[in-house]
């Protein structure tokens, strides 16, 4: 029998898993205090909480949704309320479209706030260990190489891209540096715009 999470792990990077691990305890604390943060505030809170973790110090708000997908998988597999509903877009004042297209964020937050998070076991660490081992390693590249790949691919396909693609520049660079192909990096970034 095929692993139902296999498709999920195909697109998840080690960086996604490591940052989800940093964000999860912050999300639990937000839930207990019935509070929300913006994507940028979550990244800043994580940087304050983990000053000695380079992966956290290099985090950017634009790719936070990918990290929250890892947390969402964990809560979904355990039939727990969706903690990712506590993170909202600063401009829109609500969760990103990746969330709102599939869930009612207000109802999701009500469930999160009503749940007794003190009763949740700490098996998130085990989930993270499994996730790290399930993620297929990719060959990382440095930023200059990622910029060249992005530029080359963009100019080869620019007529196919939405005019708002520039909003995804840093996410595309991050994905390329994580070892995604240009085609996959652009597709992933564009899917976040829709």
What does this structure look like?
The chain is mostly helical and about 190 residues long. The chain has 2 domains: about 5-135; about 145-194. It is about 60% helix and about 0% strand. The protein is built from 11 helices and 2 strands. It has helices at about 5-10, 15-30, 40-50, 55, 65-75, 95-100, 105-115, 125-135, 145-155, 170-175, 180-194, and strands at about 35-40, 85-90. Strands 1-2 form a two-stranded parallel sheet. Helix 2 (about 15-30) crosses helix 5 (about 65-75). The two termini are about 35 Å apart. Residues about 1-10 have low confidence and may be disordered.
Report the radius of gyration as a whole number of Å. Answer: 17 Å
Mean pLDDT: 84
SS-based class = mainly alpha
Unreliable parts: 1-9
The global form is globular
Please state how the strands of the largest beta sheet are arranged side by side: 1-2
Integer tally of domains = 2
How many beta-strand runs? 2
Terminal residue distance: 33 Å
Helices, by number, come to 11
Largest sheet: 2 strands, parallel
How much strand?
under 5%
> SSE string, helix = H, strand = E?
HHEHHHEHHHHHH
Task: Specify the helix fraction band.
Answer: 55-70%
Tags for this model:
194 residues, mainly alpha, 2 domains, two-stranded parallel ribbon, 11 helices, 2 strands, 59% helix, globular, disordered N terminus
Task: Give a concise summary.
With 194 residues, the protein is mainly α.
List the helices and strands and how they pair.
Elements: H1 6-11, H2 14-32, E1 37-38, H3 39-49, H4 54-57, H5 64-77, E2 87-88, H6 97-100, H7 105-114, H8 124-134, H9 143-157, H10 169-177, H11 182-193
Parallel strand pairs: 1-2
Helix pairs in contact: 2-5, 2-8, 9-10, 10-11
